[in-house]
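FORM 7B: Structural annotation worksheet

SECTION A. Query
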Amino acid sequence: MQTEDVTEYRGCVIRPVVTAAEGGRYAAAAIVTDRDGETRTLGVDGNFAESQEARDQAMELAIAWIQRRNIVSDHYVRRG
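SECTION B. Predicted structure
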């Protein structure tokens, strides 16, 4: 398993994780830590020919999850 660079997005830290699989393929996941320190691991469905492709898909999944979470959270927060 190899963890790659860490990216911050909308107050969350994203750590893409790329793992070598059988046959020279790669699997990916993203570990997302929010401002409160809560961590969630998001798995990417698929296997990839290149590690960079796997990393990119993990980042894309994490960013989409953060965006949806922010939209829902902002929608239900009452502003004083």
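SECTION C. Observations
The beta strands are 2-3, 7-9, 12-20, 26-33, 39-43. The radius of gyration is 14 Å.

SECTION D. Sign-off
Analyst initials: ____
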